[in-house]
């Protein structure tokens, strides 16, 4: 059974608006084991709209049209569907009542353009719109169920949930019970994992689809099955990934590095602080973005200037003069200073040259020292990651969190992605 | 001349990823006065991909394919284009050199799946990818210029800018010389500005297209003209916007709030520090994301726990007990403490309840105190902005920066968007 989407609106063609509706529709369908087969997006072009409706309805069993139900002249969906399917367009009394009530409740003068929202194809059925002025509607044409939905995201969401999904599943009952296992990883590349599977797991079961979603800085691995009975195979693949790259798996679903670190700290009843120079507060921001972070995060210092390193973290001015702000002794002193000031159990400290300026021959842009650990047990690594400023900051903040995560969980502290950038 | 887009990828069909690439492509084409006629999106389905390429290429002069250039098995674009256009698929030496160099620079072992990115249709020309491993490529088929671009947004953006736009305009020269004036604003809504124009500027020249791009937290205003001779009109509209909403205009092009604040501080030879509780380092991170921020930003404190407020900012424990951490006196003390410790001229301080937990009857979730100013001259406002945690943090960090910006520039300190959330 093929479902297609037809999205209409000049604003989504011009790029002024990013289309988030089709993703919402796809996710809601996915939750009922329906997939979107194909999606077409066009502007407010009547002839093209008619042509697409005719073409798509002959090539699929369900067509969801989104947008173009509003009161303005460039809202063409009802007229286009009527023309495409050879129906007259008439006032539907129930729709007229809905739109007039809607305007009355808001004390807005009811205009002719508003009345337009009740002018619908003669033989269509209405779909309630609990929040908006324009009702949805559907009809059958060339064996295709055509459903027209509003472009306003909040209205669309409720209409999908409360009407459209039922409409589709009544018409096309569905035996599948898909389930996707999502794993968040850090330090792995798509091609690396794919290679690993091809090389070490040639008999990977075809029932388990391995998918990737590259984020910055994380990579999501997905194990998707279509039938509940394949869950055992899904688990096998998961176990195998655990063996092969387990130390790079942060957690399931949407788990972030910061969340993984905070969860582990809470389990171990430990607390964390940080002292940031080149990341300028980004690590603290990543941590405090997580609800409930205060249970394990004490606070931190953004010691951007040397003056701050001395005043806020008691870093010895001697050290700064002798070794420079970007050096192992200073990062160590930043970590110790933060531990003393905040009273936390663990510290993360980082100092580097984010660029574009500030590099030198012996310390080029991209040079960074990352420290983590407990009082008198601070580990420090020196990396060189010469990337654009924000990419450098995001990646190094992630590396710092990951090193602490590995320390807390007793995992390998020199994974390949670290070895790659390490400077002896 | 019709341009069509073909987007491919299971992740954008499943709804896991919202497609922002097509909006970016449309905007860049728009900047050269080209419009997108139609857009088709499909999953990683080889046969369908071949069918779409054949169909679209007979119905348009330019086809931009986005996605499917990567190293994994579900990256099918090169093979599909070769099949659709009846070409062999062969290793392109230049592409192979590009991808091997890319892996070498990153010290990643070069794998067979990586090599796949050099297997391209025999007669295609390469397009340089300055940042990614997969080159772009193009060829002609059925009188249609077919251009294949990478799905990674940052790679796509540069390839469009540096190669694809030129490729199209050389092939299809266009007499228009559009120019768009982009203004970054904070605190304005799209409909507010549109109504202002309708009401106070009924004779807005039709030659100047007013566009919007809602960002979080900024709103971009665009004044687009199609002919150089209309620049005077464009300037008139700009002047008018300056009169009406000038204090909400941060700067031109991509100027961020943090950048605007830092630029003004540098001009006034002043420096800044911050003391953050509920934003947890986000303000500092926004500031230090700007290259050269160290010239005006001294550093800051993330005083998440009360202990940190006392130890790092010398906030009196009495104050904390008497008024609570989320209170005017404490925010004032945080600002003063940060000024003393960092030696900066100006401070920003913020303390609030980001939620979802931690609210009370007299201080519900969303309550926040924002302070800014110089020693002994700290202004504090109390707002209530009950939104999801990250939205709350982003918006309140932006408000804090904007209040300082307004102070530094001597602008109105109670704009309407602040009045809306202010709590007496």
Explained architecture:
Two copies of one chain form a homodimer. The first copy, chain A, is α/β, with parallel strands linked by helices and 424 residues long. The first copy, chain A, contains 16 helices and 17 strands. In chain A, the strands form four sheets. Chain A has a six-stranded mixed β-sheet with strand order 2-1-3-8-7-6, with helices on both faces. The first copy, chain A, has a five-stranded mixed β-sheet with strand order 14-13-15-16-17, sandwiched between helices. In chain A, helix 3 (46-58) packs across helix 4 (77-84). Chain A is elongated. The first copy, chain A, starts with a strand and ends in a 5-residue tail after the last helix.
Helix content of chain A: 40-55%
Q: Tell me the Rg of chain A in angstroms.
A: 29 Å
Give the strand order of the largest sheet of chain A, numbering strands 1, 2, ... along the chain. Answer: 2-1-3-8-7-6
Which pair has the most extensive contact?
A-B, 82 and 85 residues
Mean pLDDT of chain A: 93
Number of helical stretches of at least 4 residues of chain A: 16
The count of DSSP E runs of length 2 or more, i.e. the number of strands of chain A, is: 17
Oligomer: homodimer
| Helix-strand makeup class of chain A | alpha/beta
Task: Compute the separation of the termini of chain A in Å.
Answer: 59 Å
Q: Please mark out the parts of chain A with pLDDT under 50 across 5 or more consecutive residues, or reply none.
A: none
